[in-house]
Write a structure and sequence with these properties.
six-stranded mixed sheet, 21 strands, alpha+beta
Length: 408
């Protein structure tokens, strides 16, 4: 049995080169505005969602996620293919659509509930529960135009939670309120899952995909590129979103270099534990950074160093060869050396720039060569906790007070 089936769905939008806004323009320029480009929003998309399944839809901006939901909801027609649904469908593509800013919260709850399929009596009966969920008891008679954006979204989500449709189409509605209110939203999704509701959920938050979804799909430029396990789809999305290509210069003019030139950093790269050069690495994997340099004249006991900079140009990691606790030796002109740093990836998902440097030993550490902005790599994963790093850790939450500490 299938709750939602999309079979060979295509959707194209025409993008006119020039728009005509008035009847006068159309009369005097009848041929203007007829030329247009075509944008393929969806390309031969086929998948099925089972009844009671929590199904994630992910993809970069412009990949066709919202267009797909609108096609399933019947807001857009499709050019080719077919979409079949079994049961009542309720779209929540833009929270608060239909709210009237000149009406009070009380009036808007009734109005919006009726628009979403409740009877007037049902909407009135559930009013107190909706307001309590939104935590807006003191503002029920305030016009919505005086609400903050957060209050507006809280009210809209609370109304949505009361709709008892068979199939819910939800587009990025969990970025609402503070952490406590978000947890209430998460609890509502858990309740919907227990009730066996079929939910199609569009999001950019891969942690939510892993937390809630039974399966997920990835769209890219309107095409279905992956369908299956949420963790695998989330990892692929992270790789795609941060961009996978060869480890290459950051861009024209982006590289920065300084030093006396007595030795030169000739190359640097990231490699896997097996020694393969890579440009992206999953969280938790073991990898190494390799820096290769060549002496132009005799150099004694050079200090090699690396730094990792995040996309906000914040140094998140740095180390150097002084950790060896021994001299690094003499390098004759033309002789090459290699500095390696091996570590388990505990960085947050994102792109990191590599800075490599050679310095003379002793106080002051005169710079021999320093290269920045010439290499970068991506860390991908779904455990973005909001910090600069994602340290290996365990969490626990239990009933009761913590046991008393032991002196000694």
């Amino acid at each position: 049995m299938t709750a939602v089936a999309c079979r060979g769905v295509w959707k194209t939008f025409r993008l006119p080169h020039e728009r005509l806004h008035t009847l006068k323009e159309r009369v005097f320029h009848p041929f203007r505005g007829r030329s247009a480009d075509e944008f393929q929003a969806l390309r031969d998309v086929s998948f099925e969602v089972r009844p009671g399944e929590f199904f994630g839809i992910v993809g970069r901006n412009g990949s066709g996620k919202s267009t797909l939901l609108k096609c399933i909801a019947g807001i857009y027609g499709v050019d080719r293919g077919e979409i079949l649904t079994a049961g009542r469908v309720s779209p929540f593509i833009e929270l608060g659509v239909g709210f009237n800013p000149d009406l009070t919260a009380r009036d808007n709850v009734i109005l919006n509930g009726v628009m979403l399929g409740l009877t007037k009596a049902e909407a009135r009966r559930r009013f107190d529960e909706i307001i309590a969920f939104a935590e807006l008891e003191d503002f029920v008679d305030l016009k919505l135009k005086n609400y903050s954006s957060g209050m507006h979204v809280r009210l809209a989500f609370a109304v949505m939670a009361q709709i008892e449709a068979d199939i819910l189409l939800i587009d990025e509605v969990l970025a609402v309120g503070d952490a406590a209110f978000q947890q209430k939203c998460f609890d509502e999704f858990e309740r919907m899952r227990r009730e066996g509701r079929t939910i199609l959920f569009v999001t950019h938050a891969m942690a939510l995909v892993e937390r809630f979804c039974d399966r997920a799909m990835l769209l890219e430029q309107g095409e279905l590129v992956s369908l299956g396990d949420p963790s695998e789809v989330a990892t692929l999305y992270s790789e795609l979103n941060f961009g996978r290509g060869t480890v290459a210069p950051a861009g024209p003019g982006a590289e920065q270099r300084a030093g006396d030139g007595s030795a030169e950093i000739v190359d640097a790269w990231l490699e896997s534990a097996s020694g393969e050069r890579i440009d992206a690495v999953p969280q938790g994997e073991r990898c190494r950074i390799v820096v290769e340099f060549e002496a132009r004249e005799e150099v004694r006991d050079p200090v090699a160093a690396i730094e990792l900079m995040n996309e906000d140009d914040i140094r998140v990691f740095a180390t150097n060869s002084n950790w060896l606790n021994r001299p690094t030796g003499r390098f004759a002109p033309g002789e090459r050396g290699t500095f390696t740093v091996t570590f388990d990836v505990a960085l947050a998902p994102g792109r990191y720039g590599l800075v490599a440097a050679l310095l003379r030993p002793g106080e002051g550490r005169q710079l021999i060569d320093r290269r920045a902005g010439f290499r970068s790599f991506v860390v991908h994963g779904v455990r973005a906790g909001g910090g600069l790093v994602d340290l290996p850790h365990e969490v626990a939450l239990e009933h009761g007070a913590a046991p008393a500490g032991v002196d000694g």
